[in-house]
C-alpha cells in the first residue's frame, strides 16, 4: 500500500509499505479516506520531535482521520465492513492504574497514532485499530466532519473540564483548529461572551464570521486593554490554544480573581513560566489538558445533531501526492489555512 513517510526534517516521500493485517479478534482493518494535518504532525515534520518523543526515520505521521471499515475480526460487533467511521487515534491498555481510575487519556501504556515510540500514523491507505477506536457515523457526517471529530473532542473535553458557569465570559487565545473547536464547543454551553485573539488576518475574519463577540490581533492591538475595557471585572475562563508564552501571560492578565486558565495548546518548547504572584493573588485555577477522555462519541453526536458547526474550519484539500505541499502550507500558516485535508 502507499504511505507518506517522513525521511528527515521537512522531508517526506511516498513509499510502498506492507499492508497491515488483522491479528486480534477485536481488530478492525480500516481503509483511510481522509486525513487532517494537525499542528502536532507539523511539529514532527519541522523539528523531528515533541518533547521527549523523537522521530526515528523513516516514520509515518498523522492521527486525524476518517475511514471505511474494510474487514473485521471475528469478535467485532460494533462495526461491519462498509461502515464509515470516526477513528479515535488512542489505544489504551485498560489495565494500568490510570485506566482503572477512569483516566484512559493518561494511560501509562498509551499507544497513539503517528507518535514516536508508540505507533505509526494514518497517512497511508490502510491501518488496523481496535474496535473500541471506531465510531460509526451512520451516514450523518461527511468525511471532513469525521476527521474534525478528533480536535473537536479535545476542545469539548477542555470546555467540560473548565466547568463553564452559566452566562460565562470567556476568551480563546489562538484561532487555529483547536481554538475554533473550543469556540463552537463553548457556544454550545450558552456562554455570554467570547473574546478571541489571533495574529493571522484570515483566521481573524473566520472567527468574526463564526460569531465571536470580539476578535483582536495582539500584533496590532493591546488585546489585554481592549478586553478589560469591555469586561472590567475580568473573564471567567481563558482557553490558551496557541502554546505560546505570551498568550499564557495575557490569560493571566484578563482573568478575574477566581478565574480559570485552561492550557490546551501544545508548546514547541519544554517549559513555560507562570506569573506566580499574579496567579496566587488572583487565586487562578490552572487546568491542563491531555487530549480527551470519552469525548469522541460526544463529538460525533454534537455534529450529527447540528449543535456545532465545524465545516467552516476546512479551508484546503490536497490529494495524497501533494501531502508535503499541505504540510508546508500548514507549517508556514500560508493562504489563511485553518484545517488542510488530504484525500487518500
Note down, in words, how this protein is organized:
This protein is an alpha/beta fold and 344 residues long. 28% of the residues lie in helices and 28% in strands. It has helices at 39-47, 97-100, 143-161, 177-187, 201-210, 223-230, 245-254, 276-282, 296-304, 323-331; strands at 2-8, 11-16, 27-36, 49-50, 53-54, 64-72, 84-87, 90-91, 111-112, 126-130, 134-136, 169-173, 193-197, 214-216, 235-240, 255-263, 285-288, 314-319, 339-343. The strands form 5 sheets. Strands 3, 6, 7, 10, 11, 18 and 19 form a 7-stranded mixed β-sheet that branches. It has a 6-stranded parallel β-sheet with strand order 14-13-12-15-16-17, with helices on both faces. The protein has a two-stranded antiparallel ribbon with strand order 1-2. Helix 3 packs across helix 9 (296-304). It is globular, with a radius of gyration of 20 Å. The mean pLDDT is 97.
User: Spans of 5+ residues with little confidence (pLDDT < 50)?
Assistant: none
State the end-to-end CA separation: 11 Å
What is the radius of gyration? 20 Å
Question: What would the average pLDDT be, to the nearest integer?
Answer: 97
The named CATH superfamily of the largest domain: Medium-chain alcohol dehydrogenases, catalytic domain
Helix content: 25-40%
What's the multimeric state? single chain
Please work out how many helical segments DSSP would assign.
Answer: 10
What is the annotated CATH architecture of the largest domain? Alpha-Beta Complex
CATH topology description of the largest domain? Quinone Oxidoreductase, Chain A, domain 1
* Beta strand count: 19
Main structural class = alpha/beta
Beta-sheet strand percentage? Answer: 25-35%
Q: Describe the biggest sheet?
A: 7 strands, mixed
Amino acid at each position: 500500500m502507499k504511505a507518506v513517510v517522513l525521511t528527515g526534517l521537512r522531508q517526506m516521500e511516498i513509499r510502498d509499505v506492507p499492508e497491515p493485517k488483522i491479528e486480534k479478534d477485536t481488530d478492525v482493518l480500516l481503509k483511510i479516506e481522509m486525513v487532517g494535518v494537525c499542528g502536532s504532525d507539523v511539529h514532527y515534520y519541522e523539528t523531528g520531535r515533541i518533547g521527549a518523543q523523537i522521530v526515528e526515520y523513516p516514520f509515518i505521521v498523522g492521527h486525524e482521520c476518517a475511514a471505511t471499515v474494510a474487514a473485521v475480526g471475528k469478535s467485532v460487533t460494533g462495526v461491519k465492513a462498509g461502515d464509515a467511521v470516526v477513528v479515535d487515534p488512542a489505544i489504551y491498555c485498560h489495565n494500568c492504574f490510570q485506566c482503572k481510575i477512569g483516566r484512559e487519556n493518561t494511560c501509562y501504556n498509551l499507544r497513539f497514532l503517528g507518535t514516536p515510540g508508540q505507533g505509526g500514523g494514518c497517512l497511508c491507505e490502510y491501518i488496523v485499530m481496535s474496535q473500541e477506536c471506531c465510531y460509526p457515523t451512520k451516514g450523518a457526517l461527511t468525511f471532513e466532519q469525521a476527521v474534525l471529530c478528533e480536535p473537536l473532542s479535545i476542545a469539548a473535553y477542555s470546555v467540560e473540564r473548565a466547568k463553564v458557569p452559566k452566562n460565562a465570559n470567556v476568551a480563546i487565545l489562538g484561532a487555529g483548529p483547536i481554538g475554533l473547536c473550543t469556540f463552537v464547543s463553548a457556544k454550545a454551553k450558552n456562554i455570554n461572551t467570547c473574546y478571541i485573539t489571533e495574529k493571522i488576518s484570515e483566521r481573524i475574519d473566520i472567527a468574526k464570521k463564526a460569531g465571536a463577540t470580539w476578535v483582536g490581533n495582539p500584533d496590532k492591538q493591546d488585546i489585554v486593554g481592549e478586553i478589560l475595557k469591555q469586561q472590567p471585572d475580568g473573564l471567567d475562563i481563558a482557553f490558551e490554544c496557541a502554546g505560546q508564552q505570551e498568550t499564557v501571560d495575557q490569560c493571566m492578565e484578563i482573568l478575574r480573581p477566581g478565574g480559570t486558565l485552561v492550557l490546551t495548546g501544545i508548546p514547541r518548547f519544554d517549559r513555560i513560566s507562570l506569573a506566580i504572584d499574579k496567579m496566587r493573588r488572583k487565586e487562578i485555577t490552572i487546568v491542563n489538558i491531555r487530549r480527551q477522555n470519552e469525548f469522541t462519541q460526544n463529538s460525533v453526536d454534537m455534529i450529527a445533531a447540528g449543535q456545532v458547526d465545524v465545516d467552516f474550519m476546512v479551508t484546503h484539500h490536497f490529494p495524497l501526492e501533494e501531502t508535503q505541499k499541505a504540510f508546508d502550507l500548514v507549517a508556514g500558516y500560508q493562504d489563511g489555512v485553518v484545517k488542510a485535508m488530504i484525500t487518500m
